[in-house]
Amino acid sequence: MAKFSTKVLIIGSGPAGYTAGIYAARSGLEPILVSGTDTGGQLTLSENVENFPGFPHAVSGSELMENMRRQAELFGVVLINDKIVEVDFSRRPFECSSEKHNAFYADSIIIATGASAKWLGLPDEEKYRGFGISVCATCDGFFYRGKNVAVIGGGNSAVEEALYLTTFARSVTLIHRRDNLRADKYLQEKLFNTPQIRVIYDRTVEEFIGRNAPPTLEALKLKNVKTDKTEILPTDGVFIAIGHKPNTEIFQNRLELDNRGYIKTAPDSTRTSVEGVFAAGDVRNADFRQAVIAAGSGAMAAMEAGRWLCR
C-alpha cells in the first residue's frame, strides 16, 4: 500500500479527466490522476472521431485518448493505473482508497468518472462494437450515409437518435420491446411524421449476425415477444439507445445526486454539494455526451479548483 498527497486529485481518465489534468498541471497544482478501470473512457469504443476540433481527418477514439494521455504526462500530470473504490469527503484533506489498496489525500477533487452505456449483453456484441454496433449517433452516424440502420430502444434517447440518423441514413428502423413508446409525445409526433423511419414493436434482439474477418455486422435476429416468432432484419448498423448509467456508485450518500444518479452541480459551474469537490464530463450531464463538451467541462473544473484552492 502506498500513500499519495496532492492539491488536486482527478478521478477518471476520459476527455474530462485528461483535460482537467492538463489545465491543473499548467497552473502548477501538480495533479494526480487515477485512471479507473476503463482507461480513456467511453470514447475508446469509437472507431472514428471526426467532430473533435483540431483533427481534420478522422481519428480513432483510442488514438485521441492516447494523445490526451501523453499530453497530460508531458505537462507533469502523475497518472496512476488504479481505481478509486471509496471516498471520504467529511474532512480535509479528502481521503480516497483504491482497488490496489493505495490511499490518496487531496485538498480538492475533480470527479470525471463518466457514464457507461447500457448494452444488451448478447454474444458477439463486443465483437461488433465499432464495427456496426454503436451507442452514439452523433459520434458515428456520419459513417452510415446512404445506408440502412436500426435503433434499439423506446425512450427519448432512442427517438432522438433515430431522428438524428435520418440526416445520413437511407432508412432507420426503430425496434422496441413494448407495444408503445416511452418517449415524449412531441418527439413521437416528429418520429411518426418522418418517412425515413419505421417502428417495429414487440421485438427484442436475439442475435447479432455478421462476418468475422474483419468484423462486420450484417443483420439482426429479432424475436416477437408475443408470438415467440423470429425474423431476420438486414442492417448496416445498429445504435443501442437503452440508456446510460452514471458511474457514481461510490459517491452515493457523499454528494448530492439527481434522480438518475448524475452528480448535481451549481448552475454554470462544476461545483458539487461539497466544497472543494468538482464534477466534469458525462458524470454530471446526461444530455450531450460529447467529447468536446466533456473536455471543456474538465478545463472548467480545473480552473474552478485552482481558484478555490487560492481563495
Task: Please tell me about this protein's structure.
This protein is an alpha/beta fold and 311 residues long. It is 22% helix and 28% strand. The strands form four sheets. Strands 1, 2, 3, 4, 5, 6 and 17 form a seven-stranded mixed beta sheet that branches. Strands 8-15-9-10-11 form a five-stranded parallel beta sheet, covered by helices on one side. Strands 12-13-14 form a three-stranded antiparallel beta sheet, with no helix packed on it. The longest helix has 19 residues.
Average residue pLDDT: 94
Order of helices and strands: EHEHEEEEEEHEHEHEEEEEEEH
State the total count of DSSP E strands. 17
Number of helices: 6
Distance, first to last CA: 33 Å
Summarize the structure.
The protein is of the alpha/beta class and 311 residues long. It has helices at residues 15-26, 61-74, 137-140, 156-165, 185-192, 291-309, and strands at 3-11, 32-34, 78-80, 84-88, 94-98, 103-111, 115-117, 133-134, 148-152, 171-175, 197-200, 203-211, 216-224, 230-234, 237-240, 244-246, 277-279. Helices cover 22% and strands 28% of the residues.
